[in-house]
Amino acid sequence: MIRNVRLYFFGLVFALLTISFLLMFPKQKTLELLVVILTIIASIYLGFALSDGRRKEIIIEISAMIFFIALAVLGMWISPYFLIAGYLLHGLWDIIHNPGII
After folding, report:
1. Given this model, what pLDDT does residue 84 score?
2. pTM of the entire structure?
3. What is the rounded distance in angstroms from the CA atom of residue 75 to the CA atom of residue 69?
4. What pLDDT is recorded for position 46?
């Protein structure tokens, strides 16, 4: 339980630091940086899947990666609301897909 609280706290601190950093940039540049960050987050899933080595996990994580990158691109081209959805769903994905870790 304590570990979970620490992980949530770490996530909150990291989010606040990221927001503070992004406030230094103009709106368009901030949007671009948020797209890059979500894409990096999505790509990390592939690394975990490959290190796991199970085919099923690789397919699941590649699917998640494609989904989150698609939300990032849509957030840039269509509406920033796709980025909001991407970040919220990323958190939800971590909670559901990795129970007990986060």
Report:
1. 93
2. 0.80
3. 10
4. 84
Question: What tokens were used for 78?
Answer: 């269509």
Tokens of 16: 């606040």
Interatomic CA distance for residues 42 and 65, integer angstroms: 5
Q: Which residues contact 90 (CB under 8 A, 6 or more apart)?
A: 38, 41, 42, 68
Asked if 60 contacts 52 with a C-beta cutoff of 8 angstroms, the reply is no
Token representation of residue 41:
């987050």
User: Which helix H or strand E contains 59, and what residues bound it?
Assistant: helix 55-77
Tell me the one-letter amino acid at 69: I
Other beta carbons within 10 angstroms of residue 98's beta carbon come to: 10
